[in-house]
Every structure is written in C-alpha cells, then in structure tokens.
Amino acid sequence: MLRTKAQSMSKTGPGNGEGPDWGELLGRVAHHGDTAAFRKVYDHFAPRIKAYAINQGMNQQAEELVQEVMTSVWRNADKYRDSLASASTWIFTITRNQRIDLLRKKGRTKAEMTVDTEELWQIPTEDTTIRSIEAGSTEKKMKESILELPEDQMIAVRKVYYEGKTHQEVAEELNVPLGTLKGRLRLSMKKLRVMLEATEL
Amino acid sequence: MSAHHPDDLTLLEYSAGSLGLAQALAVSVHLGYCLQCQSQLRKLNALGGVLLSETRPASVGANDDQIPERSDVQNESLDKGFEQLMARIGSEEPRAEAPTGTSVSKRYHNPLERYLPSSLDELDWQQQTREIAKYDLTNVVDMGSARITLQRIKAGAKVPVHTHRGNELTVVLKGGFSDELGVYHAGDYIARDPSHHHSPTALQNEDCICLTVLDAPMRFTGPLMRWLNPLLAWKA
Ligand SMILES: [Zn+2]
Ligand SMILES: [Zn+2]
C-alpha cells in the first residue's frame, strides 16, 4: 500500500529537501564511477524495485529485475537530467522498460526485427529549457495529489498502474462492475490533471 | 498539434507499461506529434516515480519477499546483492552506445522509421485496389499477435465501408482522411471498436498514409464486400 503521512519514512523521495540529493549522487556515478555513491542509490532503490516486481507478480524474476535495472542505472547515469525528471521517476521508467523487456523475452516471435522497448516508451521532445523548473515540483505535487484522491480511486489507480492489472482483473478483485472501475479511473485522472495543472501557473 | 488523442486510460496504461506492444506503438507514434500527450505522460511517469519511492521496500539479495525483522540480517542480504551486482557490472562488456538522442529532435518522429527499408513513399507497397495499397509490417516487427500495417489511400479515394471484429487503432502519418465521425490529419490517433461501421475517405490534396493496428481482421459490410474481401483480407 501507499504509505500514509502517519507512517513517516526515514528517506523520502528526492526533490523535496529531505534525503540524499540523487542527482548529485548519480552525477558522481556517471563522472567518477563512484561506487560509494552508487551504493547509496542502490540501498534506497533496489529494495523498492524488488517490491515493484513482486507487486507485478514477477516473484521469480524479482532479483533479476533489480540487477537489470541497477546495471542500467550504473551504465546510463550520465543520461540522467534532473531538469527532465526526478531520480525516482527516471528509475521508475527504467524499471518499467526492463520489466517489459523481461516479459518480451518470454514471448518472442519469429519476426525479423524487434522494436526496442525503450524506443516504444520514449517521450520524444525533451526540451530542457521548458522543463527545468517543472520536474522536481511535478513529483512533489503528484505525491500530494495522490494522497488527496478518495480512497476507492487511489486503490483503482494503484492496482492498474502499479500492479499492472487489467481493468477486468481489478474490477473482479474489487468486486465492482467494469464500468464503475473505469469511471473511478477516469475521475482520478481528471482530478490529477486538474491538481497538477494548477501548479503549472 | 493533433486534435485526436489516446484517452486518459490508454495513456495511464501506456505509462504503467501494461499496454500491449502494438497499441504502445500507436501511442508512441502519436506522441511524436503531440506535445499535449507528451506533457501528460511526463506527469503520469511522475506518478510511477512516486509510487516507486513510496512503496514498502522488499528485501534484496534474498529470496523471501519480506523485510527480515533484524536490520543486520537485512543489511547482510543487501550487501550480498550489491556484491553480485558489482561483480556482474565488472564482468560484462559495456553495452555499445545506442544511437538514440540524435533522432529525437526530428520533427517527424516515428519509432517505426528505422525499421522500414526506405522512406514511406519509396516502400514496396502492395497494391490492393487501384486506390488502396498496403505495406504489411506484421511479420517484420515483433509486436505480438496484432496485425500491423501501413495503408496508403490515394488522394480523394474512399475505403469500402467496413466494421472490425476487433479494435482498430489508426495514426495518420501523412495527408488526412475523413469518416462519419470526423476529419483527421497527420498525428491524429483514432480508436475504433467492433460496433463501428465506417468508410474513410482520403482528403483531396494528397495521398493519405496511416499506421493501422488491428487486433482482429476487418470485415467489409458494403455490397462490394464479396469480391473485395479476398483482395483486402488481412491474411496471416
Ligand atoms: Zn495527443
Ligand atoms: Zn476501419
């Protein structure tokens, strides 16, 4: 489950003044191959990546996913830009892509070419000048906004988004009609959109 | 800027990484044209970042999925996991730099582009009728069971009225077309379900090229269906 404010965490996400400066640590990994800095990133994120894998029902491959993602973080640390996304968002997208890759490996067809997962999930225009102020605050605001969602909507979003379940599966799990579930998801998307847009001004 | 977008729930699933590959391809082609969806997606990815950072950590380096009670045991298994990781990083050749980043800034962004043997106009199009041609990508790219094709409709020509047995996603790559529900231009993302009958007509000024993703064959319903069907069938 999402942690509530009551269950305070020793290390919160980046970009809100608490906890390590992930951008700086990743910079040290990128430019100096700094193992100690990498270890800090690992200590925080590896257990969360593993939890994500388990939530996605990939118990068997959870350790493999952790290793794949952290290897990729080590190799691509120089591509991280804190003006584009916070470190946890960046690491989330790597985790998501590597998860898709692991699943794709199982279902390979005889097709001539494989379209790169990363390319399929890439946001094309990354204009740093526009984004620089936005990235850190987007995640902070997102965190607040999620906590403001009514519980039934938050659960629906979490199950679809974080546990990778289909709408049908989630509807059955929550014992509501499919239409009701879709309604909740749409409402929550609308609310998140409104809450986030309010901060962009 | 396009006027027709994937809906919120599709973007949510795309960001979560649970959308099927072929659908993801269609969304990704649309994103190349659409700043609005790009921005929405950045926010949705931040949702993933928040969920990841707020998740209850699991124990790494061990096979159980619970955090051991004692923190020294926990640290021990983290140590072990980190050792394994560094050993692996040390033993593997660094991956060759992927040539991404350079093509990103191009205005016309299509992740399929580098898998096509030539530019859209010079493809080895298979003529279906005098006015409609297709280029089948189903067996070219690895996208699961969906039928993936490029379609080219001659300027002003009409595709026979048809329904779909499955869902049809279309992204306009060039030119435009209209149907009973609207007019579509380059970049537009159009989703049609099985209940929908339509007969797209290409706009007059230029040939229309679309990416079409179909999760089941289409079915022609007009009077010409009998003889057109075998010609246009999306045969495996
Ligand atoms: Zn859009
Ligand atoms: Zn159609």
Automatic annotation (TrEMBL), chain A:
This is RNA polymerase sigma-70 factor (ECF subfamily). Residues 1-24 are annotated as: Disordered. Gene3D superfamilies: 1.10.1740.10, Winged helix-like DNA-binding domain superfamily/Winged helix DNA-binding domain. Residues 144-192 form the RNA polymerase sigma factor 70 region 4 type domain. GO terms for molecular function: DNA binding; sigma factor activity. It comes from Marinimicrobium koreense. InterPro entries: RNA_pol_sigma-70-like (IPR039425), RNA_pol_sigma-70_dom (IPR014284), RNA_pol_sigma70_r2 (IPR007627), RNA_pol_sigma70_r4_t2 (IPR013249), RNA_pol_sigma_r2 (IPR013325), RNA_pol_sigma_r3/r4-like (IPR013324), WH-like_DNA-bd_sf (IPR036388). Residues 42-109 form the RNA polymerase sigma-70 region domain. Belongs to the sigma-70 factor family. ECF subfamily. Keywords: Sigma factor, Transcription, Transcription regulation. Pfam families: Sigma70_r2 (PF04542), Sigma70_r4_2 (PF08281). It comes from the Bacteria. Residues 1-13 have a biased composition (Polar residues). The keyword Metal-binding does not apply. NCBIfam families: sigma70-ECF (TIGR02937). GO terms for biological process: DNA-templated transcription initiation.
Automatic annotation (TrEMBL), chain B:
Residues 120-214 form the ChrR-like cupin domain. InterPro entries: Anti-sigma_ChrR, Anti_sigma_zinc_sf, ChrR-like_cupin_dom, RmlC-like_jellyroll, RmlC_Cupin_sf. It comes from the Bacteria. This is ChrR-like anti-ECFsigma factor. The lineage of its organism: Bacteria, Pseudomonadati, Pseudomonadota, Gammaproteobacteria, Cellvibrionales.
